[in-house]
Write the structure tokens for this entry.
Amino acid sequence: MSKAFTKEDDNAPEIEEPDEPSPLPAGVKNYITPQGFATLRDELKQLRRVERPKVVEVVSWAAGNGDRSENGDYLYGKKRLREIDRRMRFILKRLEVAEVVDPANQKNRDQVFFGASVTYVEKDDSEHTIRIVGIDEAALDLGKVSWISPIARALMKAQEGDVVELRTPGGTRAIEVIGITYSDV
């Protein structure tokens, strides 16, 4: 039977949805740059002070309109509140275990470590630049890769001129490090 034809009981307890699964492998620390920490903190603040109060206002208004079983504003508002609360719990947990590592404080700037921007060249002479960041900051489209990703692991501790082996599902390929920088952004 379609859910559209069933009546939801307003007094029924809400089913607790599980938190997002943690992408942190067991025993791995949650390293994060100061910028990444600030971004997560700002997202939490935005959810807590702006988005959640707006949705609570809509849900309160919708609840006053009577029959909640067919009230889209109420149903979708409650769903959005659960999503916001789940995201807030996830961010709080991540911030609690985060270890902020400032790449600007890196003493050995000749080698690749957390926070480094690395320029490398592949066999076909294509040049790429990536920045090694925390798991919560990774954004491949922005050139930010997680420090536990295969390419970051291959590049760790490499120096300019080093050729490292990158293992991928398509096989192993050699990449040469041609530049290492550490910056604030």
In short: The domain at 29-100 is CATH 1.10.287.180 (Helix Hairpins). Confidence is low (pLDDT under 50) at residues 1-19.
